Amino acid sequence: MEEDIRIYVEEAPGQRREIIAPTDMGLSLMEVLKASGYDIMATCGGMALCATCHVEVLAGPALFEPNDDELDMLETLPVIHPGSRLSCQIRLTPQTDGLVVRLAPTGA
Amino acid sequence: MPNVISTDICIVGAGPVGLFAVFEAGLLKLRCHVVDALPQPGGQLSEIYPKKPIYDIPGFPEILAGDLVTNLIKQIEPFHPTFTLGERVERFAKLDDGSFQLYTTDGTEIQCKAVAIAGGLGSFEPRKPAVENLEQFEGGKGVHYMVRDPEHFRDQKIVIAGGGDSALDWTNFLANVAADVTLVHRGTTFRGAADSAEKVKTLAEAGKIKLVLSSNVTHLHGNGKLAQVTITGNDGTAETVPLDHFIPLFGLTPKLGPIGEWGLELTDDAIVVDTLDYSTSLPGVFAIGDINTYPGKLKLILCGFHEAALMCQGAFKYIYPDKKYTLKYTTVNGVPTL
């Protein structure tokens, strides 16, 4: 499909896995990561209410700013990074092509 | 004297699916006892998103998660289910006569003829900060992940960590109870309820509490009992302070917990079931809702309701292998009571 994009998951330093994701299904990054076999609980199903889909954005295109719900939830976490986001709030579109993320440790 | 409860089906998990299982069991005149680690029924609907609307419950174009729980509780009232809330089922044993005994963290014993695990994603456990020797001081040695009894901290020196509502609320409350309260937050601002955040600032300005921003608790020290913590700033400066209790409050996160060690067949932390009656690999133990897995599994509340109905048929046959049962419709007979 012409609208497919590539996102990259840094599984270890210098080791990035490429994932091809469609952009015509309204998927979130969380949904694509889950479907790609990553161990993400996403307890709340994508409502920015559980923070179990926490990722760190390492590189790639500029994303829209997180909304209040997402910022509130990130605030409760013990550790965040400058690029911390909830992957359920990142909608995959042609503009997110080339995004590089790292998954936060489970339970953190 | 331990608390002993006797019932037909012990339902582990008081989420929507566990609650509806009480209804389906009641139609078969089976009594239920429901256990949940959370202090209130409803599971994640009550704990995580009570104010969020759900759109895929048949017959309800839109219903708030909290209202669905209220309705479910009303719906099962005629069957007088009993509850043990705020306790987690820790151990379970199958007896020679095919019945079961379950034991909770607080020593409650439940004797039952069948077990229905409706544990969702597991029990909600406190999210722990990444501090190396945190676990060494758990269990009464100075680290607490929740405030059960504020009196426990009277006239004590405490350090609270976190930036969410519970960290703010407990800081405000314990400021009047504890001898010395320090709140450590890795950020510079609080996004929690504006009035709690304001109150914390006012208390800090008045010198009633100590507010340490842009910092984390990084080390715990003590010999068998917590005595000091090291607080490290984002700029690298570190300070070690004496204390009696460290209370990290970073919200809850679900964990499969002890269910994973009950010897049931699992795949990817989910319990494998037979879709005939949602029985597990151990006869008499059933699993319904988000905690089970089978080909085609969909984690939907409505699928869990369906599973609950079929599970109860299986549980009835397990408990009364010689009795015949014919399906009765509530439209014909109304709802029986127990």
TrEMBL record, chain A:
2Fe-2S ferredoxin-type domain location: 3-107
SUPFAM superfamilies documented for this protein: 2Fe-2S ferredoxin-like
One Pfam family this sequence matches: Fer2
Cofactor: [2Fe-2S] cluster
UniProt entry keywords in alphabetical sequence: 2Fe-2S, Iron, Iron-sulfur, Metal-binding
InterPro entries tied to this protein: 2Fe-2S_ferredoxin-like_sf, 2Fe-2S_ferredoxin-type, Adrenodoxin-like, Beta-grasp_dom_sf
Gene Ontology MF: a single term: metal ion binding
Official protein name in the record: Ferredoxin
Annotated source species: Hymenobacter sedentarius
From TrEMBL, chain B:
Domain FAD/NAD(P)-binding: 8-295
Positions contributing to FAD binding: D36, Q44, Y49, V89, F124, D290, T331
Cofactor binding description: Binds 1 FAD per subunit.
Identification of the protein by name: Ferredoxin--NADP reductase
Gene3D superfamilies in the cross-refs: FAD/NAD(P)-binding domain (3.50.50.60)
Keywords for this protein: FAD, Flavoprotein, NADP, Oxidoreductase
Organism: Hymenobacter sedentarius
Listed cofactors: FAD
GO molecular function, one term: flavin adenine dinucleotide binding
Pfam families hit by this protein: Pyr_redox_2
Reactions catalysed, as given in the entry: 2 reduced [2Fe-2S]-[ferredoxin] + NADP(+) + H(+) = 2 oxidized [2Fe-2S]-[ferredoxin] + NADPH
